[in-house]
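>> received
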Amino acid sequence: MTFKTRHLIGFTAAIMTVFSGLSASAQETLKIGSYPANPPWEFKNEAGEFEGFEIDIITEIASRLDADLEISGLDFRALFVATASRRVDAVVSSLTITDERLEAQSFTQPYFSGALGFGTKEGSEIDSLVDLAGLKVGSIATSFPEGWLKEREDEIGYASYGSYDSTANMLTDLRNGRIDVAVNDIVSLRYAFTQPQLSNLEVALEVATGDRFAIMMPKDSEKLEAFNDALTEMKTDGTMATIYEKWFGVAPAADSLTVTPLPIPTSAN
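>> returned
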């Protein structure tokens, strides 16, 4: 092999190394915000790593977009600031699509239809919304349950309302009698009440609301369509159903939002 040939081979190898490095470093990192105390939707395990139904969804989306994933824990109210300021690419936290939120944020297609759970101490004898009259109720600040309760304050006639920054604080007050009823999405409450320290609490009442959970993103995000396409693929190829069954123990209904491909929503309905 001549010096010229060796030189050319070496130069070619160097160029390939440079371009290989550029390709690796060019892989996009999706910045995701998440409320870290919202099991089974998202939570941190003992190792400090995020787990949950929506964590599996966002992880799968990142894989399909050939992107890395960086998940940050945020206070629930901070999720909206993070998307509005575009500090994150998306947030997950069992977030309901509402017309008010759509004015400042964008959402992917929904993948879950929610219902409200009304948590009480065992033996509360609460069987309907009528039984909430004169009681102290609470929910998470800026959440869908909070808005739902405030809109119906006169109708329900509860004595007082408490707004909480975390589910843990709300359920502590419920257990200690500072509030009579804690209102949250029913899946979260049922999961929480399986914990030994909350075994004296129960879901006394369930109210179907038709609210739809989705991934929230900055308004008109350039990544919105790609996220939505990935969700459509996941619903079509069975991946969403597999994730659902992993976290909820049953297969989703055949006509549910979990397996029905939908367009990007322009309204809450």
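>> The first helix runs from residue 3 to 25.
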